[in-house]
Amino acid sequence: MKPCLETKTSRVSKRRSIETVRKAMRAVRSKNTAPELALRKALWSRGFRYRLHKKTLPGKPDLVFPSKRIALFIDGDYWHGRQWEKRGFVSLEAQMSRVNNSAYWIKKISGNIIRDKRNNCELRLLGWTVIRIWESDLKTNHEKVVEKVITKLESS
């Protein structure tokens, strides 16, 4: 007799209430996030100085190094369209298929991706170098990401 194995597809998924989702989304910060603060602290301790959230630049970069003309963004995986890939889905649409109001979230996240590309292009046209870091990379490989940023800063 073969043993009964539970698979991921056999689990029943329960949708969260609209109020639960709303409360969670209200708690999401757009600046001064934990990964951003961690990177800032690491760079500051190594002697790098920067400006925060420069409103006059496209996309209001999280960190700006004016003398080197480098704009750095720390992108959240969910909000900037990487989470579906990390979770093993074939597309953003596949990830959102089981979410309340999936059309809204697909439009929202796709819009963020398009806006990110547009901001990158505008910054490059203005003579800026753009560095984009994924929040999850910063959480899992903090030192590696910090060294990557420092290498880019020192080579500019």
Give an account of the 3D structure.
With 156 residues, this protein is of the alpha+beta class. It has helices at 18-26, 34-45, 83-86, 92-96, 102-125, 135-140, 142-155; strands at residues 51-52, 63-65, 70-75, 129-134. It has a 4-stranded mixed beta sheet, with helices on both faces. Strand 2 (63-65) and strand 3 (70-75) form a beta hairpin. The protein is globular and about 50 Å long. The protein starts with 17 loop residues before the first helix and ends with a helix. Residues 1-12 have low confidence and may be disordered.
Helix run count? 7
Corresponding CATH superfamily = VSR Endonuclease
Which percent bin holds the helix content?
A: 40-55%
CATH topology: Endonuclease, Chain A
Parts with pLDDT < 50 across at least 5 consecutive residues:
1-12
Radius of gyration: 19 Å
The strand count comes to: 4
The average pLDDT value, as a whole number, equals 84
Can you identify the CATH class?
A: Alpha Beta
DSSP strand (E) fraction? 5-15%
Structural class: alpha+beta
Largest sheet: 4 strands, mixed
Shape, principal axes of CA atoms: globular
Q: Could you give the distance between the termini?
A: 65 Å
CATH architectural arrangement: 3-Layer(aba) Sandwich
How many independent structural domains?
1
What is the strand arrangement across the widest sheet? 1-2-3-4
